[in-house]
Inverse folding.
């Protein structure tokens, strides 16, 4: 937002980024990737490899980036979060609460409206590989426009979702579901319940 990194800047792909496990954007080893593509690779494709490229591109190393993540967490009021990596890879010291996730979502939506549209993209093709957005709320007629799913063995399947109807926006955080199917069903039920049973005063 301050202009130090631009969407058309390119970051190099290290061996560490290329070898990163889990969901991937499939960045090319030794190549360079545009920042905008990396953002879409992280948001739409859940690319752990793209997270490492961004961390190294912004701060020179993953460790330096993680340190900055933790500093920003404190500034944003994420009082019960601690990060050990940029991609959410399971680690006993890598923690975030549901409340902190909702606080972070609120900041993303309100502080960066010019970039929020990436969260509603249904699919993204990079390196000839088309991947669909894993957020099940986007495929329902709910007014949903973000944000992100997650999964770890310990945490189960999670959803950080947001939808807007008229002037009213809701943010939901769910975690601990046993399958992608359960995540899709429960997040839809919760979002509908929120719009039906609550109002703004």
């Amino acid at each position: 937002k301050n202009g130090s990194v631009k969407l058309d800047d390119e970051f190099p792909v290290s061996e560490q980024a290329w070898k990163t496990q889990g969901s991937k954007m499939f960045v090319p080893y030794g190549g360079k990737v545009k920042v905008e593509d990396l953002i879409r690779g992280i948001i739409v494709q859940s690319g752990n490899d793209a997270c490492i490229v961004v961390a190294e591109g912004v701060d020179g190393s993953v460790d330096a980036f993680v340190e900055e993540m933790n500093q920003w967490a404190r500034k944003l009021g994420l009082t019960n979060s601690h990060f050990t990596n940029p991609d959410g890879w399971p680690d006993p010291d890598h923690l975030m609460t549901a409340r902190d996730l909702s606080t972070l979502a609120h900041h993303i939506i309100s502080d960066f409206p010019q970039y929020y549209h990436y969260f509603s993209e249904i699919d993204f093709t990079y390196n000839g590989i088309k991947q669909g957005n894993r957020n099940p709320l986007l495929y329902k007629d709910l007014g949903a426009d973000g944000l992100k799913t997650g999964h770890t063995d310990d945490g189960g399947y999670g959803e950080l979702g947001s939808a807007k109807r008229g002037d009213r926006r809701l943010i939901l955080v769910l975690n601990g579901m046993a399958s992608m199917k359960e995540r899709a069903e429960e997040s839809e039920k919760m979002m509908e319940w929120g719009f039906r049973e609550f109002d703004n005063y």
Q: What stands out?
A: The radius of gyration is 17 Å.
